[in-house]
Design goal:
This protein has 227 residues and is α/β, with parallel strands linked by helices. The protein contains ten helices and seven strands. Strands 1-2-3-4-5-6-7 form a seven-stranded mixed sheet. The chain starts with a helix and ends with a strand.
Length: 227
Amino acid sequence: MNMLRLEKLLGYKQLALTDDGVLHGAVEFYERCIQNGIQPILGCTFEVAWKSDASRKEMLIVYAKGAKGYESLLKLSTLYQQGLTWTKEMTEWIASHSEDVKIVLPPMDSEWAAAHSKGRLEAVLRAVKEEYAGVEIAVGVTREMVERSEFEKMREGIEAAGVLPVAFSVSRYLNATDYFPWKVLQAIRLGETLSFTQEDATGSESLPEATSMTKVFQVVEGGVLHF
């Protein structure tokens, strides 16, 4: 886990692990974070259907609040792996353990972000809060949404729904030079063939310094989340 040393050098004091539907590396991740003086945050990412169109999917991230929250993540992961889909039983479990977890809704391919252009942002977020009653709900705000002033246009609806905005950034690899190896692994997993060479490979989703993240997201009062 050299990643943890790099995170510390870049100024991060907290680090979240949010694997897709599983918690395979959670224990090692937690222990290594503690050893490196970084606060570990354990989470799990699940794919869920839009409420208005079941054929469309979005991501939902569930974070653990303490040991009980981690137990809830284990339960949710077990249920999810049975069919690789979100189930009513998972919703009911969260509702009965609302104090142990927190939910973040990323903006990518999300129903709530798409609803803004139709004037339904507040209504969609209120529906989410009703479905997961008692759970702390947050929506992710990206650097691009801030720079294009999209967040300012959404702020009123987000706050009216009683949802917390949090800064959200996706890092798929540590350094820009890691882009090609990451794409190779993705191609192997999907059974695809790459159409470019390592010399032609360029990526923009490497890990930035913590200070640059903070400056960009000063307008987001809920805090900074980095995945």
